[in-house]
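Quick entry, no commentary yet.
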Amino acid sequence: MNYRDAGLSDGEYNKIKEMLGREPNDLETILTGVMWSEHCSYKSTRRLLAKFPQKGRYLVQGPGENAGVVDCHGGWGMAFKVESHNHPSAVAPYQGAATGVGGIIRDILAMGARPAASMDGLFFGMPGSGRSSALAEGIVEGIAGYGNAVGVPTIGGKTFYDPCFEGNPLVNAFSCGIVRLDRIVSSKTARVGDLAVLLGSKTGRDGIAGASFASRELDEGNRESRGHIQIGDPFEEKLLIECCLDLLESELIVSMQDMGAAGILSSSSEIAHKSGVGIEIVCERIPLREEMEPWEIFLSESQERMLLIVSPDKYEDVRATADHYALECAAAGSITDDGRYRVIRNGVTLADLPVGILGDAPAIDWPAAVPADMDERRAVPRDMKSSDPGGDLLKMIGSPHGSCRRDIWTQYDCQVQLRTAAEPGEPVSALRMPDSDSLVLFAMEAEPWKCRADPRIGAMETMAHSIRVLALAGADVLGMTNCLNFPSPEHPENYYELVQCVEGLAAVCRDMECPVVSGNVSLYNETPRGGIYPTPLVVTAGLVPHYTYFVSGGHAREGDEVYLAGPTSGSLGSSRWQVLCHSKDMRPKGASWMYDAAKEKDFVSKAVLVSRKADIKKSARVVAGGGLAVALAKEVIFSGVGMTIDIADKNPEEVLFSEGGPRALYVIPPASAEKFVSCWKGFPVTRLGTAGGNSLVVKGCFEVSRDDLAAEFFGGGK
């Protein structure tokens, strides 16, 4: 076959010939082409990702395994990771989203952890578009259909709408799992003589070459892409989870690996490469649904499969356990001592490659160029004024960007397993840890508008915001996982944005001592109409030592005092107000808040201090999308009590609608006010007013009733 059909460039093919000392045969070309695809090799970002800090006081396992693990005390750890399933979800929304959920759950399982919760970052075109609405409906149904049936709760997420995602939705699937720190499984422990055992569903033609499909832009029709879409079975996955955990508990397996992108090929070659051994796989020993060619077998991404590494003397016990769960189980290969990757069929060697070829695709540093319109993007529009601030507030909270997402999350089972401590709709998601009073919190954040206006500053604001949310809720930061969603890196301006976003995230993580424990990169997110905005999504984890420290919003009472901790204004650049109320084409304009490490650290330390003062009753929320006005509105809606606010002679648009920076709204009983203010010594705190009545009143600006706010918030977004 032509090597270009396998996705290899001239230079890459010549490199393969040089490494082999010969021409590869057709099967070897296909296998190498898939493993050197962007989706499998990270060749365009590998050097960039090295900029992320990978050390931290809670870090147990960082990048290089199926998921990261952090120490949650008491001998327990939390494994977590986020992955993309963007292209499959654009072509077949239900199955694309469903198998994204199933795949990330298996990554967590591969660490030896019991999958405990899922979250999803969803990015759609505008609801008014028929195609986007259909995609969104199918994707949400796919997440619900798989997650509810497999018995892993969906506890939160993020949903964002913008025309740039028309035809190219993003589905970023996150999962986490609880694991004993002395039972973590590694993919680096295969030993010579061990058996390579396939467990779970039979291998079929669904999902063939899905990794290559995810490494190029979407075509207009997408018809020929449907063969790349996997088909999920959550009930089979549930059996697979319980069987694998049973095998681990009985100490019957050495290692295991999810068969995700590139299926048997990637899982088997990765274990061999990481363990420093070789592996050979015999085609006729692989349970198949139908007759298949060797290349189809190895590239199939059929779901609900795991690769186990098993000592020969324990194989029969493994088979007996698999039989108990009615799962297919077959020893399809063995670990060798020669560092070779061999494919054998009917006694004939069809492929014989050094394992290192499959595991070490050459890295690419694409040329980068500052976008020609970057100065224009960064400039905050001048003289933005509001003739109707109350009307602007109602417009923002009633828009798809600000309204309640309950029509989405009520489709999800968020309470199965009974560990959920904060239901969807809260700024953070929370899980109870076993044998403990502690909570693990997760904050999922992304800021495509801000990253479009200035990728570095936007990424810094994304990361800093995720940490602020955790600190306000009472958590110490454990670590972060990310999904980097970008268009083609082959365009210099796109690659510039990618580099700037990574460097921005890395800088904040270093400053805030937040290690990056795992992650995923999704490139080529574009259609012939254009590419998506740069969309780095982060999920940051935090630990609340005792559930009584956990702080949330919606608890204001009549007579409470309202405070703003932090500067009275941030930036109007690329804010929700700017995009929705001052842009005819919804174009974000203007750089966001300029990150300041010293101020962020000060805010975080003081917010955590306030959360742990049992004698200070409080209701709180971080000032974010929509600015202080939206934070006030949400507090009024969820508390059921109005507020009267006085912003004195300050610029009302700046105070009410600006975003970014370390700022939080607190509502404190008068008896606790003095102690609260003393906790913020050296950090700006402003008393804004009092809680009471049935309306949100900003003196000299507007008065909006709670009923009108609630009607827009719960009834908008269509």
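second:
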Amino acid sequence: MLKASSVLAVFTLLSRVLGLVRESVRAALLGTTALGDAFTVAFMLPDFFRRLAADGILTSSFVPAFKSLIAKGDREETRAFLSGIFSVACSVFFALTVIGMLASGALSSLFAPSLEPETAAESSRLIKIMLPYLAFITAGTLIQGVLNCVGVFKPSGFAPVVFNITVIAAAFLLKPFTANPARALAVGVLCGGLFQLLFQLPFFLKTPFRFSATGLLKSLSNPAVKRLCVLFLPTAVGVGAYQINILVSTRIANSAGVGVVSSLQFSTRIEDLILGIFVVSLSTVILPELVLEAKSGNTEAFEKCARTAMKLVSFVTIPAILFTLFFATEMVGLLFGFGSFGSESVSMTAFALRFHIVGLFFVAAAKILNPVFFAKERLLFPVTAGCTSIAVNLIFSLLLVERMKGGGIALASTIAAAAAALVLLAGLGRHLKATGPWLVYSLKITIISAICVLPAVLLRSPLQQFLSAYPDSKTAQLLLFGIPAAVFVVLFAAISFAVNDETLKAIRRLGKSDDR
């Protein structure tokens, strides 16, 4: 499991780095301006459905069902299931695309009612350009699910690289031919979705599985398809709460002033960097493994798989949280401080990031805990956790937005993520004897991280004095962030090695096996 997730993480790392480059290009072209808010609102809808499909509903519902069919070995039944799901999913997302394009103005007003008329009109145009992206991502997600079920993870890991390269290229190549840079980025999103799909097709054709379009009624009459559709809504609530909260937060943040919406999205992108590289990679790999062990009744292997994943999440996210709390400004300035993204934008985004990043542990925990429930087809706790998260986020966003602006919205999302994680942990005790040891392990990693961050913080003042002659230099910004980060990582690795940390030992064994 660790080996497969590490291979996927390498490709995801490349994708996320390019994603940051993409966001840096967007920051330089749009900043936290009104046009930047227009693009943020417009991109939010296709991105919401993409996350809901790729990171959630189809993956969490589809993978367990398809893995079970593969185990049965009935080729014809498997083909009928794939064709049925493909037809239903495409029909749903095609309908959403048409409705969204026809109602683009209403959608813009719904999620951002405080936009100026000219900005709202531009947001509506951008929605129309980008919404067809849903068709490409729907088909691509199904193909990704099939590949993951047969243990092929590299294409789905590299496909986002294709998407990011396309968007970056479009921003520069199309900018001279569009009315504004936001439209060039929007066309890049559309083309990126298409190329992402086309990239995965050759790998899918190497598998023994095929599917084709079938009638909607025929598709829904298939028992396996019907069962998956019944699970669709509760799964959407369970795994889609994080994305739904982003929509709700954007709607509320729109009233907090120009640039708040954009600053929150830039803050979320940094959080997504860690989630994507480590946690999403791990959850993608772990779900087929959990399903296999659950179906075989191997409780010991099931618990070992889940326990390993949970401890790895703590090993990665807790140090990242503590370091980011102290170096948020340096991180944001280094990544996004270009062009239109000035010091005010950096300050606004760093303020939100400090509240967002605390929720990283809870969001990551939910992404690992949810597959445990899905593998055993126990949806009550994921649904309860999702509903709790949505309600808590709405209440605290309304309470905190006036006083804390973007920071209040970010804090509300963190509180909501913590509430959802607690619900899942409460339910986990019935199915997995790993909660207590995991929490003790998380406390140990927190203590180690706190020890390591202190020398990094003490280095800040001498470095600032040494580099004071070059305050706006990117090299100086890189050193102000990079040197403390290197000190922190080396100390954390050294102390983890000294205390014989089990997760570090597993990673070291993985490296040795790769060398052989």
